Structures are given as C-alpha cells and as structure tokens.
Amino acid sequence: MRPYPVVLSIAGSDCSGGAGIQADIKTISALGGYAASVITAITVQNTLGVQRVEAVSPETVYDQIEAVMSDLQPDAIKIGMVNDVATIRMIAACLQKHQPRFVVYDPVMVSTSGHLLMTTEAIQEIKEVLFPLTTLITPNLNEVAVLCARSVTSPEEMLHAAQELATLYQTSILVKGGHLPGEDMCDVLYSADDKSAIYKGKKIESRNLHGTGCTLSSAIATQLAKGNSSNEAIREAKRYIEQAIAAGRDLNIGQGNGPLWHFPDSMHKSE
Q: Can you give the pLDDT at residue 22?
C-alpha cells in the first residue's frame, strides 16, 4: 500500500491558475496527495472573467483517462468542467470500465454571473449517465436550482433538495450554501445511505474567492482517498479551504476575483 493517495482530476484548464485543473493540482499536492490530470477544455480566463472555452475532443479525453487509470490506478477521481454530451459519455464509459472507489463531481453548470455553461442536453446527460456513477456531487445553490427546477434559498430547502437528488440518483449530495445571504456559512449533506449532516461556520470576507468550488471538491476527493469517511472528508476539506481563503485574503494577484492561497502552511510573505 502506497503511503500517499493518487487523485485524478478530470476538468478544464484555467490559464490564470486560480481554478480548474490548476487549483485541483495545488489542492491535492497541499494535502499530501499525488495529482494526475485529464484536461477536458482549455479556458481563456483571468481574475476578471472567462473570455473563451475550447473543448478537448472526446476521444482525447477518453485516451487521457485510460492512460492514467491503466497505469497509475488512482485512489479517487474528481470531475469538474465537462459540458459536451460526447465527452460525458466517454467519461461515463471509463468509470464503468475501471470502477474507481471514489468519484467526486463538482457540476460546473452555472457561471458566477448566473449564465448556464451547459446545454440542456448536456445537463440531462450528466443526470442520466454520470450522476449514478459518483460517490458525491457538490452543487452550489445556482446549480442545485437547475437540477431541481426550483430556487433553493434556505438551509431547509437545501436539505430537501439534497435528499431529493440523493434518492433519485443513489449518490451523496453536498449542497454548498456559500451564496446564502448573511455572515453564516451552511453546507448540507444528504448521503446515499439516508443520513444527513449540516456543516456550519462563519464566512471569511475576501475578494479572492476564485476557484473555491474546485478546491473544495478536490480536497474532499483527496481526503476520501486517504481513507476518511464522507463526513470526515468533508469536515477536513472545509477546514483546509477556510485556511486557504484566510491565507489568500491579502493576495494581490490580478485585478478582479483573485485566487486562494493553496499552501497555507507555507505562508507567502508580504513586503
């Protein structure tokens, strides 16, 4: 048994380094894992926003996954940006073939400004072929509203939505409540075995929050790969992301929504 987990991230590339594959690699590494990556799309973006997205061909995505799975045999997989029906099917085929123990899916469906990043056909495809193959899905409030076809605006509604999706797709659902108004944080888990948990905390004020969803999901995948239970993995991942947000509050990287500091134990030094 190797002393470190191998975690595969299947996601888009962020050339500014704050989100996507780049955030995943930093997170997995910071938590003591070995990160492998499969790029599904190349994004042209920075702290001010996304300018363009160029998808990688479904065949190339499939071949990347096969290369990693057949040789490295990852302990866990994190899936992020995937918005093409053919690519979704390729990923599902790989998951069915290799049967990884842990699959954490962060459904990147809605932009920060509220625009859909996936077609209705792609959304239907992930629900039908990808969701049932996952261990945990981590939608935010905008994404869970799309999945449930209704707005979700309170912890009670978050729990009902999580239970509905978990029952429908036989997987665990962590609804992230970072967009709720107020100073308090509230994330809600409903697991595949009909258990629920609420994770509360205080929001950390920062203008640098780019890549928080990517970071949380890859942190959970890494903690699961280490052998933690779902509840322990989520708690440890949330503890890590709080540290990364706090450490990144004073970063001056870019002109807009900057990144977290993914290595809080090796703090950057201010001049």
A: 98
